[in-house]
Amino acid sequence: MAKKKKEKEKRGFARELLSFVLYVAAVVLATFLIIHFVGQRTYVSGSSMENTLSDGDNLIVDKLTYRFSDPKRFDIIVFPYRYEENTYFIKRIIGLPGETVQIADGRIYIDGEELIESYGREVIKNAGLAAEPITLGEDEYFVLGDNRNDSTDSRDISVGLISRDEIIGRAFIRIWPLSKFGILRHQ
Question: What are the residue ranges of helices labelled H in the chain?
Fold first, then answer.
């Protein structure tokens, strides 16, 4: 009788252990799927997106939207820096595929027309690569930081044009600091 009781206890313990292991595996799998396909947390380092984003801001990056739709002008995107592993840039899309972008006299021109926007509030001092017209390919984007005179972006050869497949996602919501918590304005 005591032997049967011990066997029953062992089976009960084994079931509980298996149940716990399966639960932990499901949580790990769900976390992986969410981080890989839906969204992830990132933080802002530097002042290139001032006044929209500040150094130390924590954001949630929406990785799902661009699986179903194309990036739009003025979206704030996250993409990897080509020359440094585990380094990501956060910039605003200015030029869309097929458009011609140029910066002249401190102003941005898209297909020869001045871009009216409210994000870069200063006259651009350095046009960089965009001093001459740049025609974007069918999957290329031209990006700028909102702090136009203190940003390494598509004007700089180290960043250049961003291809669609390089875009990790769209900066969606600021979660820190709490005083600035909220959805980021893109339009």
Answer: 2-33, 65-68
Q: State how far the Cα of 61 lies from the Cα of 81, in Å rounded to an integer.
A: 16
Q: What is the mean pLDDT of residues 133-150?
A: 95
72 is catalytic: no
**Is pLDDT at 40 greater than 80 in this prediction?**
no
Residue 6 a catalytic site member: no
* pTM (2 d.p.): 0.79
Half-sphere exposure of 124 (CA within 13 A, CB side): 25
From the candidates 4, 19, 48, 69, give the one annotated as an active-site residue.
48
- Candidate list 63, 91, 151, 154, residue with the active-site label: 91
H-helix or E-strand spanning residue 41: strand 39-43
DSSP for 141-163, written as a single string = EEEE-SSGGG--STTSTTT--EE
